[in-house]
Write a structure and sequence with these properties.
- The chain is α+β, with helices and mostly antiparallel strands.
- The chain is built from 16 helices and 31 strands.
- The longest helix is centred in the C-terminal third of the chain and has 33 residues, at about 545-575.
Length: about 650
Amino acid sequence: MKEFILKLIRGIDKKDIPREYLPLVDDLLRHKIIKVDGKIYTISSKYRVGKIDIARNGTGFLEVLGINAKDLLIEPQDLNGATKGDLVVAKRIFKGGGRPKAKVVYILEKAFRFSVAYYDKENNIFFNVKNEMPIAVKASKKSLKNLPDGTVVKIDNEAAFIVEVLGVLDDPFVDEKISLALYNKKEEFSKEAELEASAYGSVVDKSLYPNRVDLTHLPFCTIDPVTAKDHDDAIYFDQNSNTLYVAIADVSEYVSAMGPIDKEAKERGFSIYLPHKSIPMLPRSLSEGICSLKENEERLAYVSKITLNESYEPVKEELFDAIIKSRRKYSYDRVDEFIEGKRIGIDNTDEEILAWLMPLFEVTKELRKKRLQKGFEFTNPEIRLVLDENQELVETVIETETPSHTLIEDCMLLANKATAKMFDYGIFRTHEEPSMEKIEELLNDLAQVGIFTKEYNTIHELFLHIQKEAEKLGIKEHVDRLLIRTQKQAGYTAENIGHFGLGFEKYTHFTSPIRRYSDLTLHRLLKALIQENKKQLDFILRNIEPLTVRISELEREAAKVEWDFMDRKFARWAKRNLGKRFRAIVTDPESTPIAQIDDEIKGARIFLPRAQVELFDTIIVEIIDVNIATTKIYAKVVEVLDV
């Protein structure tokens, strides 16, 4: 919805209005919210569109969408049924003096179309799993009588009826369904999308693609997690010419714009990765089949070819359609063994790849050194949950960045930077500098743990000083988390504003079109540019700004699904360990203090009511209560350790 409304704010040609929004446009015309100039439909200047935020006293604020404008104040009596997070049209109220005001005249979209709730049979009430607030549900007594206690349901908030029964709260298998339902995600694809995907088969016949560059003679390889089934990228390095080839799955060849697969991919935005499975953006016959750069299979690729000089600067960058055949599917662990000098069980193909892979590793080390002169390196280990056959948490594994990860990362960064140079308006991956308010909060927090800062010229210089001081105190990992928390969230924008975290002036996402709709869109944009297809290019650019807004939202939603699922597994683990004691680290001492378990299980967030603790205190806690529905874990501090 927001994507379409942004188009209306800018002005949209009648022929570009999607069919599903025609009834809305007609309704907005009846309310005289839209004005028509020839064939261009635009929101009238009398109105502002935005999201509603509501203060504790009931006063609303409109976060205006699409233009640079201050939030508009909305008195409680002028909300007209709008609630926090709703997307609305508001009419400005012009009165002398005071803060600019408005009143809601049209609710475009409710913030939460669906809720997830569980049934308390004894009291005949449904409770929201996010906050345990009661939810009104239209259902007959007869139907409710058949529901077991703790039944989990998905509810349509507008109609107040049950859309789907997900399971029961006591069953660990319901967690996945809850996490997906909370953000209205699904695993299954439409029949039309599956049918379209299956039509491509599983084999590429290169004779059908005479205009593509044939690179099947080059010994490319893929490097991914051991569990990976979808392979977006493959690499090859020509030592003689100091040229890196980054071959990316050519998804745009198979997913036509506005087709059934594209429609679903655009709705999903991103693949979602849970500990035990993935929820792909594309049907598996594409993501794990014909698109995936499988070992010893010819595949269509979009190749970024980058030639470096002796100072590791790009001197020539090319982009072209190709066909490749990856010789090996390596795991990160296997490549780390190669880097360590272990050569057990290698064959002639491995020898051929290692002949260029090890020199490339030395090149990427130099690239990294140069990059970190402007960018950052944060210690932020990823926690991976290990589940048993009953979907219960049995172990956490800390996944840290290893040399093989950095090798691939710097190859991908080169390709992303190279493609970002090709356009000035399109789809950029951007990251703004943190605000001064956030910097001040950070400095106050750091002062509590004995880190004081000197005068600094740039935020980059400040962060490097903080990291150096944290390392001396042995708390770099914890401080790095604070530094990450201080920064704004990276996202997608049509205009380039640079990437603060990486230290890049221009950056985009090119290397993962199987998993990210942003990259698929970029491929279409780049091909239209190279082919000088003005009609296609105009269509993409006409719709690019609202698309970047929507993709940024979908990225956050995908992350929230993954985090919610983790929290549910941590909560069930805590429930099984009521009364037991664990080591933890305080991550937020304010209000109700929060700590993170750092013991046999790592990463579980726990609340410490009425505890007196300091930032980064190492403590022993006893788990005293767990709410499976809301995932809240409560504990009491037994001891503050002197470490």
